[in-house]
Design a protein that fits this description.
By secondary structure, this protein is an alpha/beta fold. Helices cover 36% and strands 24% of the residues. Strand 4 and strand 5 form a beta hairpin. The radius of gyration is 18 Å and the shape is globular.
Length: 260
Amino acid sequence: MANHPLNPVLDYRISARYGAREVLREVTGQISAKEIVALVGLSGSGKSTLALSLLRLLRYRGGEVEGSIVLEGTELIAKSDKEMRAVLGKRIGYVPQSPASALNDRLKVETLLEETWRAHSSAPAAADFYSKLLDSVQLPNAPAFLRQRAGQLSTGQGQRLLIALAIMHKPALLIADEPISALDAITQASVLKLFQQLNQRDGTAILFISHDLLSIASISHRVEILHEGRIVESGPPHEIFREPKHEFTQRLVAAMPRLP
């Protein structure tokens, strides 16, 4: 197993279930500032359950979580919904897989920006704040774009807007759950570069959840393999992909596409 940071932004040990069905069993992890940790697993392995558990949102999907979730030295597991609302969006940013399901398609871009700002700040945003934020995710600040409704955006634009909303308040931790799976190859590469810039420029700790091994190899500092509700292997990408130790990891790596 890999060495973990001494002062992590996030430190967790959790189990999760839906009724009698246990999905996560004593899953542990730590992420430090300026670190990108990739969580890999097959569909149905519990990746999204882990993301929702860390966000304390699993109960809205009928699940239960027990254990410990420590963010910047503060235990989250027993916080009330009101207390968690002060954390989500401010200290933890979340980028889900699909803009179509995450954005209210009837709201204008400028409305989404303003509502997200007001959720954690009573003071008005600086005059150039939104333009700089949109520029950081390679979105236009033109009035025509701001007046567009979310439902009119392309998938790539919607995903970039989700990222902009997630990083607006400079969270310590960003959880990205399959954030590039619906994007074309060029947009995928651009979004991955953006995550790396956020990680290094702002020191944002990132939990990058994906099944795309090539993307994971290019972006992560550490890879954790989730299989049947447990982390079965953890280490730097070059170790995981060159010398996988667990049988499941070996099968995953063997399935990676290779150039002839």
